[in-house]
User: Fold this.
Amino acid sequence: MLSPDAVHFLRALSRLLGWIYTLAWSLSFYPQPLLNLNRRSTTGSTIDYVSLNTLGFTVYTISTAALFFSPHIRAQYAARNPVSPEPTVRANDVVFGAHAIFMCVVTVSMFWGRLWGLEQGGRVGKWRLSKGVAGLMVGVIVGVGFTVLRVVKDGDGARTGGWQWIDVVYAFGYAKLVITVVKYIPQAWANYKRKSTTGWSIDQMLLDLTGGIFSIAQLVIDSSLQNDWSGLTGNPVKLVLGNVSICFDILFITQHYWLYRGARGVVGEAGHWKGDVEDERTSLLDHGDARHQL
Assistant:
């Protein structure tokens, strides 16, 4: 059993870690758009990644805001988790989410070349989501919509054992998990095909890694203070979000500093690679046409 002083210290440490990872993750949204503006091009980053990021943080913010602000949903959460009735969602989570949505919208808007005057693969104002990513985004929206309809149909069935609004919050959360697992793959694959990370900001990954580590540390402290590790399972979004992000951050760091360290590409005056500009219509599976000379 922890002493009162130890509990007070750990609570203060949890709040400090929360704001540190909020700052690190929030700052991670700036390097990529700043790099795009500096190069006058979005070539090197993928529209799939930034689109999934925008949708992911939208559903994340909705779920965290609901758990933080709604007494009704918090009560349903407590009923589902009687041993650990307090959600491990903090104010910094909500602030981070709102800021993330704003910066994601700014970044994805850069793929409208005529809006910012930026180039994509040597062409202005042309981009297209891959069919797989577009299908995933539609599937997420349909899945969450289905959950909402079930709750409305069951009348927030606390007494009948039907679906409740807390299930909608969980649906948003699991949608974020799926998006987080998938969203890095197009960018990692694009880097692999080009054998280069040129145009993809490594600074955002370093900040993301820092945020992921501190996020998990805060979650562990919060759960230990409640003497019940169901605080981890009660907030699976935050737990898996941190772990998956860390794994992909390490992958991107490995690509940048080791695998493709000497393959930075040659940036032309138009802001894209000479001899390393890939047609957007090229399939991700067409290895034979994806070899580049750097």
About this structure: The two ends are 60 Å apart (CA to CA). Residues 112 and 282 are 20 Å apart (CA to CA). The longest helix spans residues 165-194. Confidence is low (pLDDT under 50) at residues 266-294.
